[in-house]
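Continuing from the previous page of notes. For each protein in this section, the sequence appears first, followed by its structure tokens. Read the first protein now.
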Amino acid sequence: MTLDQAELGRRLEELARTYRVPGATLAVHAGGRTTLAAAGVLNRGTGVQTTTDSLFQIGSITKTLTTTLVMQLVDEGLLDLDEPVVKVLPTFKVADPDVTASVTMRHLLTHTSGIQGDVFADVGRGDDVLERFVARLAELGQSHPIGATQSYCNTGFAVAGRVIEVLTGKLWDTALRERLLSPLGMDHTFTLPEDVLRFRAALGHLPVPEGGADDWPQPAPRWDIPRSAGPAGIVVATAEDLVAFARMHLADGAAADGTRVLSATSAHMMREPQVAVPDRWTIADHWGLGWFLPTWQGRTLYGHDGGTIGQSAFLRILPDRDVVIVLLANGGRTRELFWAVANEVLPEAAGLYMPGPPQPPAERIAVDLADWYGSYERHGVRMDLAPCQDGTPHLTVTVTEGLAGLEEPPHRMPLTAVDPDAGLFVTREQDVAAWAPVVLYTLGDGSRYIHLGGRATPKVG
């Protein structure tokens, strides 16, 4: 695929149809210019066409914006990443008193706090939403001991957002607008639905239960997610605006007009490895501050993904070539679409390929998982690992508290061993889906964990 706009748009349309993605926008920045493309529809119920200036929910890419605000406060001497959060938020409390007293901003930004991570309590729309959300964490337990491993933690970013509010004296939304979006000219990036409604915006689409390979996803029953999730994943933006944000980081904290948004020191710190990821095959082998850090063909990138109610977002930045790629999509097999698009764009733009997930071996590897069989649980999710009649291990994942209260049927997935010594297995729910890594591993104290979807889930029985 060339970076010609017409060709980019044509291929995006073809690939979106292949992967049953209703609508998508793509932005590629390479060679000093940004090329945009759009495909499909924003809503299969209305048929409104996707355009390059359409807004999509960017989900957890929001965390990189929140981290940038945090690092501005570090630049200003208002915050120390390694001081306990309670120094800024004296009323902050979780169930473990030692964690309450010792958890730091660095723990929150690197997903190593161990605090149960997928709490999406809807505490209303008021401007005090983060204050009230943080006040409800007093009984929240741990998914792992503090600092013991990496497990994706949305909850920690709500706490980080509240820290931003206390230190700036402004709402997180306001601080985001004044300190980051406005200086970068991100005029089509918003946090509240009443602002989004002024523009063309995508609706998410969800899979049809028991759907086959030819079934398209259908419009989701709701669009909004709780405002309390704001600093973790509520931002809505265009692909072009995300390129502006990425280019600021490529320029080590300087906006396109030269305005200093972040110090070069802090920009570098955000992309320095902080913790190894147990599942190094899915998105990255290390996490920095806010950014995850994949390595492709020996070259280090940084980026983030996002997922909300039927919407997905992907951002990758290749610093040695000043290349940025952004894909925003509203349902379907979005990760496969991103892989396909990236591998048509990046060879020309950056001279590398995006690696795919591990594949099952040609011959089955026999493994004894007797000590691993049982139940695993964290807040909102239960996993049951057990053998089926032919001895193949199966993992059944049951969502007990979904985003925005949406119910999901249990996911029953067979595990195929790829590298048992590394604890690496792969699974998929349907023959048409991409393989996904599942990692079985133990902590230093011998406790057993499953790492899936970026989360560490402990064995409980």
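Done with the first. The second protein uses the same format. Note its length before scrolling.
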Amino acid sequence: MSTNNASFIRTTLLMLMVGAAILLGIILSSLWLVDQTRTTFDYVVQERNIRSTSADLLQNLVDAETGQRGYIIALDQSFLEPYKEATSEIGANLDRLAMLIKGRPIKEERMPELRRLIETKRAEMSATLDLVQNGRQAEAVVAVRSEVGRELMDQIRQILEFYKKQSDVNIETGVAEQIEATSQLQWFTIGGAIAIVLVVGGAILIIGQHVRDLSIARSEVELLNSGLEERVNERTEDLIKANQEIQRYAYIVTHDLRAPLVNVMGFTAELDTSLKALQAYVLADGQALSDQQIQEARLAASEDLPEAIGFIRSSTKKMDGLINAILKISRDGRRQLKPERIDVKALLEATGASIHHQISEGDGRIETEIKVPAIVSDRLSLEQILGNLFDNAVKYKHPERPLVLSVRAIADGKRMVRIEVQDNGRGISEEDHERIFELFRRSGQQNQVGEGIGLAHVRSLARNLGGEITVKSEFGHGSTFILRLPTDLSKLVRS
């Protein structure tokens, strides 16, 4: 018995260490992925801000130059408005760009030259306008037709294009590294989950075998008790030692393994309850056990512990689902956009038709007001955004009234379009207006299946198209999702 018990302890300790190592590996890998994701995300956002600010600064200069030349040629005061507006933004965008590229030597070393060129260009534009205002239009026209202004703009454009290209390369590299790391962690988690199941299954088999061995040993001691006092004493001593080893094993299981397991799933309480039934059976110290105690011990070994395995499998499946969600978000910025002319009305009608049967079943209706003919954007991304918003309206409709889904598309300035998707559903509490766009976060009563990635995916797609999405909602009175997009995505893609 002592040899068997020593082998039992060695085997179970080995399994415990292997299981703990696997769990620790999964936990550390998950923490590493979170830290890597946060670092990469911050880096990519910084690069996208550099790119966006560079594009804004170039657009400011182009708008200012357009207003300058329009005023010089036409002597129309209306051209001065875009000029003044653009020049007022040039300084702020230039300072913001200088702040963003700090710590990036390749870009930072060209900032003095860029400042000098921009100041020279602003001085050139201001000088020509002063000539016109002093009645010297001809001299101003000659100055504009010279190569000075064009050469300055070409040099400025070259530096800003350099910034944007560098940022594009850095963004692609960061996203590629994150996707690769996430994919590796996914397979590691799956392998770890399988290993955990095997370890726990092996532990259950060993415990069951050891319980049977102890039961046989106790029966032999009882048979020998009638005439072999010495043998009984030896058997009793062996049994006491075996019980003490089981007690130490129970301590290891209920203490050393509890801490790492609780980080993956919450089934410690059930395991503890099951162990109590086994302990009452194993640690009886030669006392007779009731049928109920034996039944409880068998029930723990045959039902409760296998149920815990199910919790492990469910938890690892959940973790796999979350990793897949991160991969899905990470791929948004990696996919190459394909700008094309899209008929907004036709797209919204097609999206509405896909859920028409679900709405009509509840006596609901769809109302549309389309005041923009067409935009240039990525069709697949736009279909995914609108499809998600329409599906959510159906999924979270108010149970006491028919769904009314109102869709408006209107111009929002010269270069943006605004699409509003309004419903009369459950609504969203004010404190959750921003929370619902966070990854793995949901709002309100959760009676619908989901991981909480839909609106996070929508926001990622919208920002990848150069736009943004927000929500206005009052709990119990419906929601309005507001999607703002550029009318021509091809300009952003080219830049």
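What the second structure shows: The two ends are 78 Å apart (CA to CA). Residues 435 and 441 are 7 Å apart (CA to CA). We return to this in next week's lecture.
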